Structures are given as C-alpha cells and as structure tokens.
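Dear colleague,

Thank you for sharing your sequence with our group. We've completed the structure prediction you requested, and as agreed, I am returning the results in plain text so they can be pasted directly into your records. Please verify that the sequence below matches your submission; if there's any discrepancy, let me know and we will rerun it promptly.
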Amino acid sequence: MHTPDIHDLNNYKDIHSQMSSSLKSIDSKYKDVFNIFMESVFRQGGVEAMANSLPFVIGAFVVSVDGKVVAANESFLDMVGYTRNELYKKSVTNLILKQDQEMVLKRIRENNPGRYKLRLLTKESNTKYTTVSPLIINIDNVTYRLAEFIDNTPTVNVNNNIIIALQKTAFALTSTIEKRDPYTVGHMSRTAAISTEIAKLLGLNQESIDMIQLGASIHDIGKISVPTEILTKPSTLETFEWEFIKRHPVVGYEILGEVDFDEKIKNIVLLHHEHQDGSGYPYGLIGSSIPIEVSIVAVADSLEAIAGVRPYRQALSFKDAIEIMKQEPNKYHHPSLSAACTLVEDGRLNGKEFGLH
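Please find the predicted structure tokens below.
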C-alpha cells in the first residue's frame, strides 16, 4: 500500500469541489468519505501526515489530542513562531489569549465542529486574529482535532486603525457641539459609555459594540444647527423652538453624509429619538423596525439625559432616572431597559466615565 498523496484525491472530486478553499466548506454528506481518506493518511504517515496532507487548502493546520498539540504544518509554525520541538505536547491553552481559553476548552469537551474566531498568542506574545475550522476524526478510539487556521490579523489591524481615526473625528465633532451647551458637556461620551455597557450585557459582538460606541459618542451632532439660546433656555420651549430641537437627528445624519462612517453609526445619529411605541421622531418608527443598536443608544441617552443636570432642574441619580423610565415601559426597548436597570442596581455605572451618579 502506497503513502496517500494528492493524487489519491482523484476519487474524491466531489469532496474537492465542496471544500473549495477551506475545510468549512465540507458538506455533511462527504464527511464520512473524507474521514476515511484522513484515516488512510493517518495509517500511512501518522499525525504529521494529517497536518500536511491538504496542500490544495489554503491555511495553517494543527492536530491536537486531549487539548495537546501533536502535529502542525509549516504554515502554522510560521504563524505562531514556534519550532516543532517547542510546540508539540504544549497545551492548546498556552497558544490562546486568556479571554478565549474557556470557550476553546468548552468546544473541545463538546467535540464542537463549528467554525469560530480565535485570538492566538505567538511565541513572542503577539496576538493573531484567526478563523478556525475544526474537523473531528476518531481513529482507534482516539479523537483527533484537525484544525485549519486562517490569519485575519492584517485585516483586523486595518479595521482598528480606521476605528481609531473615526474615534478622533468623533471626539472633534463632539467637542465642537458641547462647547455650545455647558449643561450637556460630556453627555455624548457618557451616553456612549452607558450604551457600551448595555450592549455588552446583551451579548452583542465586538463589531456591533464598536459601532454603538462611535454612534453614541456623536449622536447629538445635529444640535450644531440649534441656536444656543434654545439649547440653554431655562424654561419650557415654545412650539417653534421644539421644532428646531426635533430637526437635529436629520441634520446630524446629513452632516455624516460626507463622512466615511458605517451606516449603522449614521442610523444611530438619525434614529436615536425613535421610541418602541411609535411616539418618537423623526419618523415615528415602531418596535422591530428600529435597529437594536439604535434602541440601546436610545435607552442610554434617556437614562443619562434624565439623570443629568439641565438649565431648568438639578441632576438626579441613575436610580431615580430608571424609576422615571419604568413609568413608560412601552417607550423603550425592553431588553435594553432591563439591562440598564441591572447595571444601575449592581452599581456598575458608578465610574467617572458615567458621570458619577
């Protein structure tokens, strides 16, 4: 019997087309056949052959057993900066950012074959942002995890640089607005901080949290069109003055029309005064027609605004503000309001970034 190589896959053309360029593309009906192929590879060349038997697939491969690395191809060694002698027998947790370790151990315990994102640690303790596609193979009562790693670090670094640039732009815009209204200095940054905590508690992914943080930090940019005497008026606004105020979301959206912000950020600016019951503005949207990112910021914005000092009243505590919001439960996104209540009750909004209420 000869050692299996790429030519042995001539009988598995359908597998090749399903895999395209990644293990994640293997269709379930081909997995049994593929497992037979990989077992044949193992019988002839052991775990090293398993890690190096897929030259037509782009990726770095590593094989682990019981959470220990037992084989890897050159691409994976280059990715993490270890030699084979240094890497083999090492626990997979030693290669993973601490925040991701429990997630990976849970996947190993459950034999979870799903694709996922993972932050690897190199020998030099640098972080690699990867996408992992595992394949679980049982041979002679031993479970092998053959995992393909795609390095997304260059793309992540570019995105992080873009986010930093956007944050600087947002800060400049926020400073311009808040200098016109001393009563709301810091309102947008505090709303952003509260929004971020609500989003985390609701389990949103990091990309959405970043969008929420940016959008909330400039949500009132349209108030640059509102006369200062209206913004700082200590008494009840006249109808025509209120119309000035109600225009600021649309004005803000128009200002951002010339800025390279994601549409989710622009929607936060445009829709942050929309209410779940349709009583908001500028469009009177209802319920699920309001994006989750917007709903979160709307709750945080109201909480901070109700608690904050205004020309016509003293500041309130967050607890008092929450009680006021509870009196209009249909106005707010229920999960976001519940999350805000939890944050207040647990004392998790006591930091300086939240206004020390």
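Summary note from our side: Residues 1-27 have pLDDT under 50 and may be disordered.

Kind regards,
the structure core
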